[in-house]
Specification:
Strand order of the largest sheet: 13-12-11-7-10-9-8-14
Strand content: 15-25%
Distance between the termini: 35 Å
Mean pLDDT: 89
Structural class: alpha/beta
Radius of gyration: 22 Å
Length: about 450
Amino acid sequence: MSENHLTSRRSFILTVAGAAIGAPFVLNSVFASVPAKKIRHACIGVGGMGGYDLKNFKSHSDVEIVALCDVDENHLKKAGEIVPGARLYTDWRELLKKEGNNIDSVNVTVPDHNHFVIAMGAIALGKNVYCQKPMCHDVAEVRTLTQAAVKKGVVTQLGTQIASSVGDRTAVQWIKEGHIGKVKHVYLCSNRSGIDGYRLEGPRPANAETVPATLDWDKWLGTAPERAFASNIYHPGIWRTWQDFGTGWSGDIGCHIFDAVWKGLDLNAPLTVKAEVQQSWKDSTERREDTWPQGNHITWSFPGNERIEGDVLPLEWFDGEFYPPTEVQALFKNDEKYPEEAAMLIGTEGALLIPHGGTPVLLPESKFGKDKYPKLEDRNHYHQFVEGCLGRTKPESHFAQSGPMTEAILLGTVAIRVPNTLLEWDSAKMKFPMNPEADKYLRRTYRKGWEVKEFG
């Protein structure tokens, strides 16, 4: 293997997080410069979604999974049975230290609050990174990680699997080709049924439970503040609902629903963001500061460009009990119910509905018919990352592409925490100049012992 793939022992200085992200990244730096014959891969996080990621990487003939890591020994044991012979770790830091010369890539499939520290640790060693969405927990983390990945020249991919689907790629192509003219307004929604358990009610568990012998709770907490363990609430459980760990429904599913719209319209940093929320559990102040709301209606304004009608594009997000306007849903006139999760773009010449994970539809169908679908090949999002590591292709959701999008989405989670407030965003300075009190939500203070050098 080329020396370009060996671990760099030079100290790596992070790019200043406040640098402007609006400037174009050097996209050719997201490829491995010298192809390898086989990618030696490590899976960090192998429970739940991590198990799915593991199986997808294992299914590529040019991938050798050499190491596995999880803070839960039960998850680790099951994964080890899938990949006999892989070296097992319960601490990602130990894995990177001991396997530095033995791996080319990692995937990071852990709760959101630890995405940055793990991915940054791998990138600093020159390793290619596949990271589950959202890329990070905080805006400042995303900015820093994106810049570090581009500067280091590693191959990256955000875990937006649907972005590689024929449906989403068709939608991107249609938008760019101008099938619906210039876009005037965009409506995104995620009103998935059957997720009541995701939005927990009641206060934080008051009584500490005994941590299972198979779980390293301190490492699970990682950068997050100390708190007592509670079974089926944090791990295994619905950790996304807690602000310390997750980014809420919009931060999670938003990365999927946003993607084709972002790419098709060549969006960049928003000008403003504002949120209306359905508060959680008795509307208590304590609860609002601990968990994400039951529902959100977030509105961004993006600067216009050649694909947008006018100087500003309004883009709205709806989840929970907030739904797209009735007149928007009525544009989809057929026997099916309006999709629970979808993007609807309103253009000067028609509309485009992009169901999450489904087939896009040009509206009205009486005008467009059903004969305009391009012929696109199926792609496996994980395999595409591997092909990128081998120097054969450009990953669909490399960080230079998906980082700025994630920033915009996470600005929505900032707005959720200061609801009913119009926040003007200065992307270059990474501040809200008219609402400095909101700046504190752009970046967390890490728990003692989990700080990241050059990041604070």
